[in-house]
Amino acid sequence: MADAAKYQKLASEYAKLKAQIPVLKKAYLDEQGTSNDYKEQIKAKDQALRKCEQEIDSLSFRNQQLSKRVLFLQEELDTIEASKKKKIFGRSKNRNAETTAATPVPTSPGVYSEELFSKIQENERLHKQVDDSNRKYQSRIQELETKLEFFEKECNQHQQVLQSTLQKSKDQIDRLQQEKAMVEVKLQKLESDVKSYRSRAELSEEKLDIVQSRLQDDLQQARKIIADKLPFIDTRHRDLNCLNLPTHDRKHQLRARELVNQSVNHLSELVQALSNFYTYSEQRSKIYPNDGTNEPLSPVNLMYCRYLHENVSYLRPCEQALRSFLATLNEDSLTTLETATDLLTFSRNFRYLVAYMNKLLPYQLASIEEECALSSCTSTLEGKNMDLHRSLKHLTSVFNKLDTYIALLATQSQNHCQYPHQNHFSFFVSLSKVLQDLDTSVRDVSKHYNSKVSLEHQLPTATQKLKTTDECIVSSLISMVTCTGKISAFFSVNVDFFKENPGYRTRGSSIGTDTAVDGPRSGPATVCFRQKASTYLSQLSGPCPETVPHRVAVQNRKVLLSSTESREGLSKQLTTAQTRVNKLEQEKEHWMLELQLLQIKHDKETEKVQKLEKELASRLASGAMKDSIEDNISKEPSSRTSSLDAVIPQNPEAKAAMFGKLDMVSAGSSDAETREVLIKNHFTNRINDQALQLQLVESKAVNFHSEVRALHKQLQIADKSKTRCEEELKDSSQHLAQLRDELQTTTKSYEGQLSMMSEHLASMNEKLAQQKDEIDDLKSQKVQQPKEKKKFRK
User: Fold this and answer.
1) How many other C-beta atoms lie within 10 A of the C-beta of residue 617?
2) What SS3 state is found at 590?
3) Residue 651 Cα distances to 147, 600, 647, 655, 674, angstroms
4) 3-state SS string over 97-164?
5) Interacting residues of 659 by C-beta distance below 8 A, sequence separation 6+
6) Which residues contact 10 (CB under 8 A, 6 or more apart)?
7) Rounded to an integer, what distance in angstroms lies between the CA atom of residue 39 and that of residue 32?
8) What's residue 400's pLDDT?
9) pLDDT tens, 550-590?
10) Angstrom distance (rounded) from CA 446 to CA 450
11) What does pTM read for this prediction?
12) Measured between alpha carbons, how far is 641 from 620 in angstroms, rounded to an integer?
């Protein structure tokens, strides 16, 4: 089943990746098309720029012509004006009477000047329009180039991501195919196993029917024996009768279980909200009033952060204790305050939590006071901080009250602390009031903190990191307000149910008995005994654990005791080995000297042998010596020849040396003495060789013994490393599970990024459409400008 689930999971991941591939391909093709469009637009813009440059050149040429024409007209105007002045001056001399009348003003020079002035203004306006259009065009080209570079970079990035995803998908497809083949093989094996198991199941069903029929008969017989022979005989004694399992109303038990389940859910939400509040407060204390990355934190903030970091170790046990209490509630047992023994663990853990809050409160208040002592803290902000100061004190006091009432309710399951059942309703009413006070105090903390944060964010020293952290704290406080509101409403609604008497009775008593006078009808240890009995029977039905035989355990202990040697024994062995090494070195030096002496003797003997060989050759040449040698050899007894053959070696050089020795010995002593000397030398050499071999064997034996000890120690080290590797394997498996979870989160994040990229591409397409519209507008403006120029020319 695990392999099938794994294969299904891999198939779903493969389907996701396969669905992502066409999206990435489409995005890549769209980006490629947009890049091509941008390139075409750049080419069109270049062509338009060239046209504008040509128009500017023609306009400059036209301007030069107009300026030359203006100069020419100005010169003509000056000449005309000069000639007219001369004529007017002549006429004034000739006609004195006519000068009194109004002289006519020439109209032509004024018309020329006005036309010239209008041409100059038109020229200036055209120059300004050309410059403005040129600047706008250049700026637009730069913006489009920067956007094109940005889009090309994004296109490259998308292409790299696409290639990496394609490669990963190919690798994953290959791996999935391999796993598919393996799963198919396993499936075939499982099918064959299923067939065999079906045949076994049929046989077991037949046996089960037989066993069920036999057990049914045994059950009927046992019920008959219990009904007839085993009545409960302790109903008269109340102390013994309270240990019997009571008969009760199952609806009441189901309602109680439902309420406990709802309280567990509310408590888990409150624990999560408190944990978020403490963790975000720790982040805030590391940022404000001193930034821990740049400045050292104050000792108060250091201790405050350290205590805040421990919040989970106090919050989680409360939730787990209440969940374990919920797990103990069954339908076949009645739960009241007298029988709820597991509430003590919840009360104990809640007391630890309240003690942690009391320990945390002074540092929390000191941190607020440090914030008030800052130079940037205004009077209004200081007032808000002091309001928060008082609300936190009140919240801690409310938690202390809540702890006392929870402890009072939890101790009702103990025999030494049992109040009458009529007082339980007052306990629950007081607890409901405390929960309402908790809701109001949490609301006050949230309100004061929100006003404090709103003032702090207006300061110039407030950073973006502080603002985000404060927003997280405010959200956690809002969740705390909602949780406490739910808890107070839940408790106030269900107070009447807690007031009701539990509907149960024991054998020999009725529901209407007075528990205030007679005491409880059921002992609180009854449920514990029942659970212990059920666990004991489940352990009996389970398989026996694997054990080690006694003989193997004793042998392993002997091996361990023999392998554990002390340091003193090893040091003694080391000293003996060092002394032996020193002796061997001394013997080595002695035998080196002996070898040098023997080498000298050997050189002398070889010289003598050479001389004897020369003399022998000279005598053989003469012939007389040859006959004497043959006579001597024939006279030698057979025993001497055999002994000499046994003693003389086969090497020719050694034979020559031995013959030289024989000749020398024969010259000075008899044959018996020579034999004894040769035999003695032979056996002394053999004894020396055997002694050397014995020393070698002993050294090898010592070496093998030390190697065996070292291998034994290495075996112990290997066992330790094996256990360590097993632990590392467990850690690596856990790490692998974490990595798989991270892989799932990364795949989800990649999916989110892909969706974001698709949205970004859609927005970019919209921007490109807007840019195209702007380009079309510019083109239309450029088309209108030459028409205006043509009109002006006309």
Assistant:
1) 9
2) helix
3) 100, 21, 12, 6, 20
4) CHHHCCCCCCCHHHHHHHHHHHHHHHHHHHHHHHHHHHHHHHHHHHHHHHHHHHHHHHHHHHHHHHHH
5) 609, 612
6) 176, 179
7) 11
8) 92
9) 787 777 777 666 555 445 555 677 778 878 887 887 788 77
10) 6
11) 0.40
12) 22
Spatial distance between the Cα atoms of 326 and 346, rounded to a whole number of angstroms: 11
Task: Name the one residue in this structure whose structure tokens are 């050294």.
Answer: 699
Q: Is 504 helix (H, G, I), strand (E, B) or coil?
A: strand
- In this structure, the chain runs to a length of 794
d(CA 459, CA 376): 8
Token digits of residue 314: 């106090």
CB 186 within 8 A of CB 178: no
Q: What value does the CA radius of gyration of the chain take, rounded to a whole number of Å?
A: 57
Taking a C-beta distance cutoff of 8 angstroms, is the pair 27, 158 a contact? yes
Identify any residues that bridge with 248 across adjacent strands, giving them in sequence order: 504
The beta-carbon contacts of 169-178 under 8 Å, at least 24 apart in sequence, are: 169/14, 169/17, 169/18, 169/21, 172/13, 172/14, 172/17, 173/14, 176/10, 176/11, 176/14
Q: How far is Cα 521 from Cα 581, in angstroms, rounded to an integer?
A: 89
pLDDT for position 537: 65
On whether the CB atoms of residues 556 and 275 are closer than 8 A, the answer is no
Banded pLDDT at 437 (limits 50, 70, 90): very high
Q: Write the single-letter amino acid at 353.
A: L
- CB-CB neighbours of 253 under 10 Å: 21
Write out the two tokens for 600.
Answer: 């000298």
Cβ-in-10-Å burial (0-12, 13-18, 19+) of 338 comes to buried
- CA dihedral (261, 266, 268, 271) in degrees, to 10, reads -150
In 3D, which of 653, 646, 736, 711 has the Cα closest to residue 682?
Answer: 646
Q: Tell me the average pLDDT of the chain.
A: 76
> Is 355 in contact with 397 (CB distance < 8 Å)?
no
**CA dist., res. 387 & res. 395, Å (int):** 12
CA proximity to 534, closest of 328, 336, 335: 328
Q: Return the amino acid letter for 15.
A: A
Contacts of 782 (CB under 8 A, 6+ apart): 48, 52, 133
Three-class DSSP category at 289: coil
Beta strand segments in 120-271, E: 247-248
Nearest alpha carbon to residue 337 among 155, 470, 452, 498: 498
Is the torsion defined by CA of 315, 321, 323, 326 positive or negative?
negative
Q: Are 475 and 450 in contact, with CB atoms under 8 Å apart? A: no
pLDDT given for residue 416 in this prediction: 58
Residue 508: φ, ψ to 5° = 85, 5
| Both tokens assigned to 222 | 């046992």
pLDDT in tens, 275-328: 989 888 888 888 777 665 666 778 888 888 888 888 888 888 998 988 888 888
Alpha helices (H) along 299-373: 299-308, 312-328, 343-372
Which pLDDT does position 291 carry in this prediction? 64
Cβ–Cβ < 8 Å for 115, 77: no
CB hemisphere CA count around 412 (13 angstroms):
25
Beta bridge partners of 247: 505
User: Token pair for residue 414?
Assistant: 């103990």
pLDDT band for 92, please (50, 70, 90 cuts): low
CA distances from 580 to 571, 575, 693 (A): 14, 9, 17
Through-space distance between the first and last CA atoms of the chain, rounded to whole angstroms: 92
Alpha carbon distances (Å) from 340 to 423, 498, 503, 649: 17, 14, 16, 105
* CA geometry: angle 404, 410, 415, nearest 5 deg: 120
Alpha-carbon distance 363 to 282, whole Å?
12
Rounded to an integer, what distance in angstroms lies between the CA atom of residue 282 and that of residue 307?
Answer: 9
CA–CA dist 307, 303 (Å, integer): 6
Quick check: 187 pLDDT over 90? no
The mean pLDDT value for 167-181 works out to 84
